Amino acid sequence: MSLEIIDVTKRFGQTTAVDHLTLTVPEGKMFGLLGANGAGKTTTFRMILGLLLPTEGTIRWQGESIDYSKSHLIGYLPEERGLYPKLKVQEQLLYLGRLRGMKKADIVPEINRWLERFHIRDYANKRVEELSKGNQQKIQFIAAVLHRPNLLILDEPFSGLDPVNVELLKEAVLDLKRNGTTIVFSSHRMEHVEELCEHVCILRSGQAIVSGALRELKRSFGRKNLLIRGEGAFEELKDFPGVLRYSQTAEGVRLQIANEETAQAIFRHIADRVTVRLFALEEPSLHDIFIEKVGAAYE
Q: Where is the ABC transporter domain (predicted)?
């Protein structure tokens, strides 16, 4: 069964935060919900969780409405962290596990497993306020998954983490997905979404302006990226027919082009003019699609 958001609208007075949103998140998949600040992501998450009621529309998980009786099936990592700074790590996780209906005998081994995995076993008896921001983020993540939820909502999960810990958390997220957890994921880092998610939706002003399987969205975007590394004068490619965007790199240029025929024409043009070490045609990135669709609102 899937998570279904059906023609959902949420208004706060005269302000429409989410506007007739319809999405289906397949069971066991990872779904990226994207948008600039104020696009409606967090409001959507809170409606999925039942913390806010839609003004219009329906949200269903496994064919039924979400209410408190299903809270043990759902995990939530909010963008704004909600840990108790004075409580010790193990005390806090025990408390949160009990709130999810777990027994102490089941919680303790699960806590130890996660602390060991995240290399913070020695912090079990430290107060949260004594931990670094990155380690607090790990504890918040553990609190969201301790009860092994079927549906997991992650709002900016990698915020405040260094690259090593980002990889540690990403692998944990992927393990949850491999074990069948359905994950709805939001991040401003497009490369993380592109790496982890099969399906995405981009919100703008509460409306879905792009939605679908990421692979198909990239294929249908109608543009390609061309990376050229080498020595020579590349500046003349700025005005080459079919070049939509030009940016210089330390080793050459990166171009956004209209189609593969443009790439072939560029290769013929530069073959006798520059030394080429790399000539690579790539699918558009999620970053490209996001800038094109969301950036238009700011032009």
A: 3-230
Going by pLDDT thresholds of 50, 70 and 90, the confidence category of residue 299 is: very low
**Residue among 240, 247, 236 nearest 265 (CA):** 240
- 25 — phi, psi (to 5°)? -105, 110
Helices 89-99 and 133-145, packing angle to 10 deg: 30
- Separation of alpha carbons 151 and 26, rounded Å: 11
CA distances from 225 to 210, 236, 281 (A): 20, 17, 6
Residue 175: other Cβ atoms inside 10 A? 12
Gap between the Cα atoms of 141 and 161, Å rounded: 12
Q: What are the tens digits of pLDDT across the range 124-148? A: 999 999 999 899 999 999 999 999 9
- The CA distance from 261 to 292, in Å, is 22
Q: How far is it, in rounded angstroms, from Cα 16 to Cα 290?
A: 22
Q: Residue type for 162, please?
A: D
Closest CA to 186 of 286, 42, 25, 4: 42
159 pLDDT higher than 80 = yes
Kindly tell me the burial class for residue 179, based on how many C-beta atoms sit within 10 Å of its own C-beta (0-12, 13-18, 19 or more): exposed
Residue 251 clears pLDDT 50, i.e. is over it: yes
What domains are there in the chain, each with its CATH number?
Answer: 3-218 (3.40.50.300), 222-283 (3.30.70.980)
The predicted-structure confidence for 192-245, as pLDDT tens digits, reads as follows: 999 999 999 999 999 999 999 998 888 888 788 899 999 888 888 999 999 999
